[in-house]
Structure formats: structure tokens, C-alpha cells
């Protein structure tokens, strides 16, 4: 799979088993609740219905990750998780990961990409809306800690 980066300095590729420690560390640094476990990441790395992407400035400098889910006979892909290192935020990493996620959805003939976001995650909402995602639903008490969420969607192709 060939994924195009948003900028020359950010490269996006499919995650490998050797990325597992970095994936779990970033998950723990980024999310206070609703975290994926090492076992969940391991399962997603080996799954045909999931795609784990990583962004880096070089093969060793781990900047962020995106996790996508695909369902058989569904034209909608789901961005389950998007996380960037705190020091890499605002530098095009999220954009590069989202563009790669959209490209992966198109390669699998999905007509749309959906995601959920906490209503208080203003920086993520701003990113999604800037990239053409539109709010399609409210998710009351959606998150593990009781926080509300929004569902967003972008049509692909």
C-alpha cells in the first residue's frame, strides 16, 4: 500500500509489530480513558478488518498513529483512534494521518470515513472540520468517563 504524506517531513506507513511499544506508549500519553491495550493493538496489527498507521519524521522518530476499522459489505470506514505526540501537535501529523486514512478507505472502495470525537476536544474538531468532515450526530455520555461526543463524516472520492 502506497500512502502519500501531507508534507515532505512526515511519512505515513502501515504499522508493524515492532511498533507495538511505541503505539502503547503513545496511547497511554494521549488518552486518560478509552485506551487500547497492548493486546488490542496486537490483534489490530494482524487483522484484515483493521489498519494501524504510524507517522514518523524518519523511521525511528514516532510522531503519531491512526487506527481504522473496515466492516465487510459496508461502504463506511471508521477512524477509531487518532493520536499524535504532544510535541508534534500542530505540525501536520494529524493531517498526514487523516489523508492516509482517507486514501486507505478509498482503496477499499469505501464511500465515507466516520469518526467520533469528544465535544471538548476543540483542536481535533477544528482539524476535522478544516479537512471537510461534517458533524452528523450527537453522542451523549459516549466515552468511558461519561463525556459527550460528536460523530463526524467525510465523503470519499
How does the overall form come out from the CA principal axes?
Answer: globular
Number of helices: 4
User: Spans of 5+ residues with little confidence (pLDDT < 50)?
Assistant: none
Distance between the termini: 17 Å
Q: Helix content range of the residues, please?
A: 25-40%
Keywords: Acyltransferase, Transferase
GO molecular function: acyltransferase activity
Enzyme class: transferase
InterPro entries: Acyl_CoA_acyltransferase, GNAT_dom, YpeA/RimI_acetyltransf
Please specify the SSE layout and strand pairing:
Blueprint: E1 11-14, H1 20-30, H2 38-45, E2 50-56, E3 62-69, E4 76-84, H3 93-107, E5 112-118, H4 122-130, E6 134-139, E7 149-155
Parallel strand pairs: 4-5
Antiparallel strand pairs: 1-2, 2-3, 3-4, 5-7, 6-7
Q: What does this protein structure show overall?
A:
The protein is of the alpha+beta class. Helices cover 27% and strands 31% of the residues. β2 (50-56) and β3 (62-69) form a beta hairpin. The chain starts with 10 loop residues before the first strand and ends with a strand. It is an enzyme of class 2 (transferase). InterPro entries: Acyl_CoA_acyltransferase, GNAT_dom, YpeA/RimI_acetyltransf. GO terms for molecular function: acyltransferase activity.
Descriptive terms for the model:
single chain; 157 residues; alpha+beta; seven-stranded mixed beta sheet; 4 helices; 27% helix; globular
Concise summary:
This is GNAT family N-acetyltransferase. The protein has helices spanning 20-30, 38-45, 93-107, 122-130; strands at residues 11-14, 50-56, 62-69, 76-84, 112-118, 134-139, 149-155. By secondary structure, it is an alpha+beta fold.
Amino acid at each position: 500500500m502506497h500512502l502519500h504524506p501531507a508534507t515532505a517531513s512526515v511519512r505515513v506507513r502501515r504499522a508493524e509489530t515492532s511498533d507495538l511499544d511505541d503505539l502503547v506508549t503513545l496511547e497511554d500519553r494521549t488518552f486518560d480513558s478509552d485506551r487500547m491495550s497492548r493486546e488490542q493493538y496486537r490483534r489490530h496489527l494482524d487483522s484484515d478488518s483493521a489498519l494501524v498507521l504510524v507517522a514518523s519524521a524518519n523511521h525511528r522518530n514516532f510522531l503519531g498513529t491512526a487506527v481504522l476499522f473496515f466492516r465487510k459489505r459496508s461502504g463506511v470506514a471508521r477512524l477509531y483512534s487518532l493520536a499524535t505526540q504532544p510535541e508534534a501537535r500542530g505540525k501536520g501529523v494529524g493531517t498526514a494521518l487523516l489523508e492516509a486514512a482517507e486514501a486507505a478507505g478509498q482503496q477499499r472502495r469505501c464511500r465515507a470515513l466516520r469518526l467520533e470525537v469528544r465535544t471538548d476536544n476543540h483542536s481535533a474538531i477544528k482539524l476535522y472540520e478544516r479537512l471537510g468532515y461534517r458533524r452528523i450526530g450527537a453522542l451523549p455520555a459516549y466515552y468511558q468517563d461519561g463525556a459527550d461526543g460528536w460523530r463526524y463524516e467525510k465523503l470519499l472520492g
